[in-house]
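Student: Hello, beginner here. Can you help me understand the protein record under this note? Any guidance would be welcome.
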Amino acid sequence: MAAFVVVIGHGPDLEAEEGAATLLRTLGAEVRTLDLWEEGAGLFEEEGARARAIVIEAGERPDLAVAALRAVRKTEQLASTPAIIAVPQRQIARVDPASGFDDFIVTPCTPVELYARIRQLEWQRSEFSTEERVKVGQLIIDRAAHEVVVDGRSIVLTAKEFALLSFLAQNRGRVFSRETLLARVWGARYEGGPRTVDIHVRRLRMKLGDALPLETLRGAGYKLRTPGER
């Protein structure tokens, strides 16, 4: 089953010539549409169905687009799918940056521009791992070059900061206690205490900011979340 883009909007306008659904289909993209208040569960009746992105056409009511996003997020398969709000230039000021959208696009737009935004979000959420490079979301860790890149910017890390980040990235999704991290990253002969791990985690968070999906689990340790986790 091919992955598809979910386009949400006011029913009569969903198939408009300049609408997102029509634009994406001109490029051969698989598109499924929902009315503003329609539930999304019906999109996933086929085995293996997967949504690549959500595009919500705001028109003159960005507030309705925000409400529609919150509603569709209740569908389990769409809870963490990247979302774009399509909005006219005159309504941009009404879009709250904290509304839950990952990106916005000004309408009218071209098919290529809209599709490029979707591909960019897919890249940001993607991950891969080779012997030399690891990608988790916006982070790219090049072990061969001893370099960390975030959104095209090289971030300077100390040797131990890099080693800790590299270890967590190689084992993303797993929880490690401070004691385990000390043994695996600093080595069995290191005589410092678990506080050392906390200090290095704090430094990584300061340098990498929101690009570092590192979670603290009280009483358990640390985990580097995968892009799909919230």
The mean pLDDT is 87. Helices lie at 20-26, 62-72, 111-125, 159-170, 178-186, 195-208. The CA atoms of residues 15 and 188 lie 63 Å apart. The domain at 4-125 is CATH 3.40.50.2300 (Rossmann fold).
